[in-house]
Amino acid sequence: MINMTQTVPALVPATPEFREYTAAEKSTWAKKNAADNAKYISDFLGFPVSPRLPFVLLQAARDVCAAATDPKKFITRLCQRGDHYQNCIKVLATAIVHYDLAANLVATRDKMGKLQRCENDLFTDRLGMAPRTVDNVIATIKEAGLYLSFEQRESTKEGHRGRASIKRLNMGLFNWLGLGREASVQRANAKQRQDIKKVTKTPTDVVLDSYRTTAETVRVKRVNQRAEAATARRVAALADAQKSNRTAETLALLEQGMTREAIQAHFDKTDDIPY
Fold first, then answer.
1. Structure pTM?
2. 31 vs 204, which has greater pLDDT?
């Protein structure tokens, strides 16, 4: 006789055994994730983004781009107008992918690998935005507390003058996106690599760096000299054009009673004087 009161144990699904990913598997996943993020960002912004950027920058830029279609994903309120909000997202994402973690600057690098602070024309060139639009977007992002820029001052023989603005991102942005820990770690690693690179320079590297610095100084000096010469030429041309304009003198001589023929003869005689 079957005992109907006997309980049957429930079938519990087997828990899959935990397995640590190998270094090769982690590397494969990281490369694929970086490529996916870089493609997503490139498609959204309209310019190529390198998949070799640090993970935290690619992930943060992707999350910001994704917030373009869902403002609720973005904690900070930027603005109400739809087109301006989209432009703010694009400029902010562009600043992130051009962020140098070691220097804590939004910057680019020249052909020699030297860090250069960016100006607003970076966003104009990359995104194809009008300069006025970029200026308005930067102002909105700064008011939101996400972007910092201030002008340096340097002392010269003539006094004080401005230099390129220092531009930084608020590191709280990475905290808001859930990437605060990763940003701190990768920034520390970037600084460490930079310090090690400075310490481990060979005598040849030092000589080459000195040559590059001298060449850059000479280049900047020549660019300034050409600009000054062009300004002098424009001033001379303007003075020459004003010199040939004798309207005021002609009116004054007419008031004195001279005829037009006498005035013309007077100017012809004056122009014959060698200078």
1. 0.62
2. 31
